[in-house]
Amino acid sequence: MSFLSKIKVGAGAIALCGLMAGNAQAVDLQFFFPVAVGGKAADTIAELTNEYAAANPDVNIDAVYAGSYQDTITKTLTAVRGGTPPQLSVILAVDMFTLIEEDAIIAFDDVAATDEDKALLKAFYPAFMENSQTGGKTYGIPYQRSTPVLYWNKDAFKEAGLDPNTPPKNWEEMVAFSKKLTKRDANGNVTQWGLRIPSSGFPYWLFQGLTTQNDVILANNDGNETNFDDPKVVEALQFMVDLSTKHKVMQPGIVEWGTTPKAFFEGQAAMMWTSTGNLTNVRDNAPFPFGVGMLPANKRYGAPTGGGNFYIFKDSTDEQKKASFDFIKWITAPEQAARWTIATGYVAPRPDAWETKLMKDYVADFPPALIARDQLEYAVAELSTYQNQRITSILNDALEAAITGKKDPAEALKEAQKKADRILKSYR
């Protein structure tokens, strides 16, 4: 059964609940949802949505799996421009400025009527609220949120004479460990790389780990200015390039995002950077003991946040907005947030979720789940600007040019900054 059909089964059950209630005034909601990491996410969303429907038969939710994050924003904007938007959706937090510019969404402050409602807007980790709020208002409620973390193969560490329970703490150690972990056959061909940092798809995200560690921010909080050509950004990109060309501990060229966990499982790389959203996948499929740690520091520890927020759409009735907010309050509540985290590996986005018995039992059995939460202390907002897809595409192109050797990092980033300035100057 496909993800889409699984979600539709849930929607059918919800509609049936509404019919059984016989309530002619039932509120109909369409809910677009992306699933980026596997079947458990789709199953869990269907399960939670059905559970809400059973307790609220006056609300019918048509929960539609809309594909990847990119598919979801594309379908949502098409629906908005066609006058048929969903009432609520989970969309990337970095798309907030795009949705505001399209006049597609409302601020949650506009529907937070009670003290309990208003308290919800303060219930989430500040790091996740950095790209959920702007202009003093809250436009997104954190849900499917993540940070990148370091995974390592403990068996490979033992074989290389490294402590299997101690990951590299900084860039210098990451290079030194990677050199010990990189294995070559008699002909000099690499059979195991020390490190794998993906650079395909959305390379700016993991690159932002390096820039944050180098103590520089890629964009301002207003989403209208970037710092791509800052010397600290150039230094971070040079380090990323050097991992392959100078230190020879990471495969040259573009490293694929989607195949990285599989490469890790198959021993092609001893360490990898990827999303904590892959945590359950790694736990289920790694054929060796593995560790999870914060990304190594340079001038400081640091990582970007990532993932999706809930949004409520402007072209909805007052009743639909109220029902959407009620559903969002319920599904992001501590108990449901804990269930979502355990099923997927995404970070429970509010502190009180970690105080539930369910979550305490989970982390007692699986302490690596705490790493991404603890890293939030050092996290910054994911790169987010007006015209965000164009801006991130410009940076991604610059990263690719440097990684593939077509341009040196300083030249690539200087050109990227000029292009970004041309687009963003009208928003200042």
Automatic annotation (TrEMBL):
Compartment list: Periplasm
Q: In the record, which residues are listed under signal peptide?
A: 1-26
What's in the keyword line of the UniProt record?
Answer: Signal
Instruction: Spell out the Pfam families in the cross-references.
Output: SBP_bac_8
Main site of residence?
periplasm
Keyword S-adenosyl-L-methionine listed: no
Superkingdom per UniProt:
Bacteria
Q: Is Signal tagged as a keyword?
A: yes
Annotated family: Belongs to the bacterial solute-binding protein 1 family.
UniProt-recorded name of the protein: ABC transporter substrate-binding protein
Record the organism. Sneathiella chinensis
